Amino acid sequence: MKLSSHKRNHRRQITLEMTSMIDVVFLLLIFFIVTASFTKTERELDAVTKVNEKSAASAKTDLEPAIIVLTEADGKWVFQIGSNNIPTFTELEEVLNKFPNKADGAFVRAPDKAPYRMAAEAIQACKNADFPGVSYIPLVQK
Hints:
Distance between the termini: 113 Å
CATH architecture of the domain at 62-139: 2-Layer Sandwich
CATH class of the domain at 62-139: Alpha Beta
Shape: rod-shaped
Oligomer: single chain
Strand order of the largest sheet: 3-2-1-4-5
Number of strands: 5
Structural class: alpha/beta
Strand content: 15-25%
Radius of gyration: 38 Å
Largest sheet: 5 strands, mixed
Order of helices and strands: HHHEEEHEHE
């Protein structure tokens, strides 16, 4: 009885299936391309501060935005723009209609003691004078 086979003595040539290897390589390539983050180098980044042409044009005028402060003068509440005290709503509207730089918007500042009606009138006067934006800023008094 012969235990060894004649076939075993021949050298077998091992072959690898390359099809699956190519599939794995392409899957890895696709994975790395999809998950890679392509960041710009620092010299290619935009500057943080940009000059807006519209704001640069309005900066040439050197005008401040409209700031209406409600103050108490001689026991009465009045609208104050700069150093001018304006007692009535209609006079405030006239002053605001003549204001040169409406694009910057308007600010209404009122202390807690000021009548709500006066603050509402100041906001409405700004809207009537075609200010694009009106901001209300409460004044906190200590």
